[in-house]
Amino acid sequence: MSxxxxxxxxxxxxxxxxxxxxxxQPLTGAPGDHDALLDRIGGARVVALGESTHGTxxxxxxxxxITKRLIEEHGFHAVADDLRRALVLDxxxxxxxxxxxxxxxxxxxxxxxxxxxx
Length: 118
Fold this sequence. Notes:
2 domains, 3 strands, 4 helices, alpha+beta
């Protein structure tokens, strides 16, 4: 399928289109679709995932797959969304869906306990 810009207009610069063609990773539904992305994440402790539209189920589906892999393969323990909610895991089990204020309090408590002498 080819999409053309209206006469006299263009959608993007040639350099941008070249970069997209060079770096884009097709999503086929295969288990390894997100391997390159997860390799780039490496050992990061914080990862931000976003989408260009709200309510588009294809983006949500891909974000869910990536989030699951972050939890299972990279040891992430919490996932926050842009609605100021967070999914918090305790040893791989769901501990609760919390407000971001509650998550901040949990982090403070955890840091306080880590500083406390044994």
